[in-house]
């Protein structure tokens, strides 16, 4: 059984490398039927489903992979991507942070990629809070945004009908629904920008510059230090990291305490930003 599963997995890998993600998904499914305890089969199929934008199926595969192997890096990494696509930023942030912790503890080379995903999830979580804040400020904005969302739902339902009627493939349907969602988000952003112009004091979107965010804690830095490679971290978080490993958390290269230098310019920028934007302490 296991030998058959390996052959099916290899064929799935071949299809994936050729860009045939539906074919890859099919072969991974057959391999799972032969070897249902093989974690890599579930994460491989999850990745194929990400390419197909089959988010619910990806969720199921990731959860199964994590059940089989608790500290499954790919399982949490793909899970966070699916949760983001399904607009569950709180859950996505939790999954991404789990993947990040696994990277740090195992000295994995994927730390930078996973760190970027954590930051993306945190930004999306903040965006949800910002949208709700702006909506509370303006009843008209809320009504217009709800109208855009309702139109997107109706358009997605029409696409689903075409898929069920055989007029459109499953992958084609996923692509069209993704385009509908992207268009709705773009229109919503344009709408918010218009309202921000009319009432900049209350309706302006609030953002924290990426360069002020610590790559370990994902919070605004208060006492940044810089490494020999030019990467900045908050002093408290890099000191805590050194208790586990004397390496750069992102590059994995050797790094010692005495090699760190205060980043005075960045420290001043962070202090001035916090003084002018008190809300940022909750970012």
**What share of the residues lie within helices?**
55-70%
Question: What is the ordering of alpha helices and beta strands?
Answer: HHHHHHHHHHEEHEH
* Radius of gyration of CA atoms, rounded to a whole number: 22 Å
Give the strand order, joined by hyphens, for the main sheet: 2-1-3
Shape: flat
Point out poorly predicted stretches.
none
The N- to C-terminal Cα distance equals 51 Å
Share in β-strands:
under 5%
The structural class is mainly alpha
Largest sheet: 3 strands, antiparallel
Task: Count the E strands.
Answer: 3
Task: Give me some keywords for this one.
283 residues, 3 strands, 69% helix
Chain-wise SSE layout:
Layout: H1 2-17, H2 21-34, H3 39-51, H4 55-68, H5 73-85, H6 89-106, H7 111-137, H8 139-164, H9 170-198, H10 200-203, E1 224-226, E2 232-234, H11 235-242, E3 261-262, H12 264-276
Q: Can you put this structure into words, describing what you see?
A:
This protein is mostly helical. Helices cover 69% and strands 3% of the residues. It contains twelve helices and three strands; from the N terminus they run ααααααααααββαβα. The chain has helices at 2-17, 21-34, 39-51, 55-68, 73-85, 89-106, 111-137, 139-164, 170-198, 200-203, 235-242, 264-276; strands at 224-226, 232-234, 261-262. The protein has a three-stranded antiparallel beta sheet. Helix 5 (73-85) packs antiparallel against helix 6 and helix 5 (73-85) packs parallel to helix 7. The longest helix has 29 residues, at 170-198.
């Amino acid at each position: 059984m296991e030998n058959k599963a390996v052959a099916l997995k290899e064929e799935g890998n071949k299809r994936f490398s050729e860009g045939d993600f539906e074919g890859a998904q099919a072969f991974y499914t057959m391999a799972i039927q032969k070897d249902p305890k093989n974690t890599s089969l579930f994460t491989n199929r999850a990745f194929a489903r990400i390419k197909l934008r089959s988010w619910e199926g990806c969720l199921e595969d990731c959860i199964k992979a994590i059940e089989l192997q608790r500290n499954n890096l790919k399982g949490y990494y793909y899970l966070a991507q699916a949760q983001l696509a399904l607009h569950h930023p709180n859950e996505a942030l939790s999954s991404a942070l789990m993947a990040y912790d696994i990277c740090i503890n195992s000295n994995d080379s994927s730390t930078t990629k996973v760190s970027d995903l954590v930051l993306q999830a945190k930004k999306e979580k903040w965006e949800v809070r910002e949208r709700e804040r702006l909506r509370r400020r303006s009843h008209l904005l809320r009504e217009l945004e709800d109208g855009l969302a309702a139109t997107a739902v109706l358009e997605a339902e029409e696409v689903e009908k075409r898929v069920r009627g055989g007029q459109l493939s499953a992958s084609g349907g996923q692509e069209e629904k993704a385009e509908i969602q992207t268009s709705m988000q773009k229109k919503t952003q344009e709408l918010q920008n218009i309202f921000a112009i009319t009432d900049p004091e209350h309706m302006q979107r609030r953002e924290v510059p990426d360069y002020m965010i610590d790559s370990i804690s994902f919070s605004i830095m208060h006492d940044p230090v810089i490494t020999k490679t030019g990467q900045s971290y908050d002093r408290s978080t890099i000191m805590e990291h050194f208790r586990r490993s004397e390496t750069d958390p992102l590059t994995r290269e050797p790094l010692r305490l005495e090699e760190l230098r205060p980043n005075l310019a960045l420290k001043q920028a962070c202090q001035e930003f916090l003084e002018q934007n008190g809300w940022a302490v909750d970012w």
